[in-house]
Amino acid sequence: xxxTSYLGNRTSTVLARRLGSExxxxxxxxxxxxxxxxxxxxxxxxxxxxxxxxxxPMRDPDIRVLCxxxxxxxxxxxxxLLDLARLDRERRKAKGWWQDSPHPGTLTEYIALxxxxxxxxxxxxxxxxxxxxxxxxxxxxxxSEGAGVWEDPDEIERLVxxxxxxxxxxxxxxxxxxxxxxxxxxxxxxxxxPGVMRAQLEHLLxxxxxxxxxxxxxxxxxxxxxxxxxxxxxxSFAENEAVDVVQADTMTYAAWxxxxxxxxxxxxxxxxxARLSLAQRDSxxxxxxxxxxx
Length: 294
Prior knowledge:
Layout: H1 13-30, H2 34-40, H3 45-52, H4 60-69, H5 75-93, H6 105-116, E1 119-124, H7 135-144, H8 153-166, E2 177-183, H9 184-188, H10 194-207, E3 213-218, E4 232-236, E5 245-249, E6 254-257, H11 260-276, H12 280-293
Parallel strand pairs: 1-2, 2-3
Antiparallel strand pairs: 1-4, 4-5, 5-6
Helix pairs in contact: 1-4, 1-5, 2-3, 4-5, 7-8, 10-12
């Protein structure tokens, strides 16, 4: 993740980077320099840099002038860029409850996207999805990670509070749709000890009954599968203009996939893994079996 995640309102940097990368592509194709682009909109070279890297909101007049300068005369294509700019500006104005989150910048950005999303598809290798975690599980997880990140008790409690607030998206008039696939290992990992894990699995069974939640388990006996490399979440939005965004976890940072081809690839991996997973009813039976074993 580049440092753009830490600049401005973190709600919309993904959309801004997507818009900026498209303007950069158009400029390169037209053979124009940043200095020339800056002159045509009466701006500094620095502003063009910030626009192309998604650091700042973009004005419609600037986008129209740049598109004309770059030779883009397709009204629909220009309209899509203007729509992206509008969505980006709207999300920058939104001051969400996550703004004082103790999360690192990249995760704060993800929470903001999650709050604006209409649907999530998430694949989890070693942990229960954050939206399905109990407070005790989340707290135990924060403490176990504390050697490197979370050491202050007040900060840990704030972290748990934020995670519980996120779960409100599962309820209400327009609940978030969540399709989760969890590897069996995540259900057997004793985060917080047997008592905490039993309560977590009981909660997981209750969440799985929500009409907007689909939960499947990939059992050990499924063998090799397309998503062996790690966990990821595909974030979808109600607006037609907004392409799915993917956050993939690594050991040290969160990587983003922010274009149609990459998000489609992750979507295909998710669907293939779903076909190897247990059906919802059988997944619930396995979860309950593991709960009783613990």
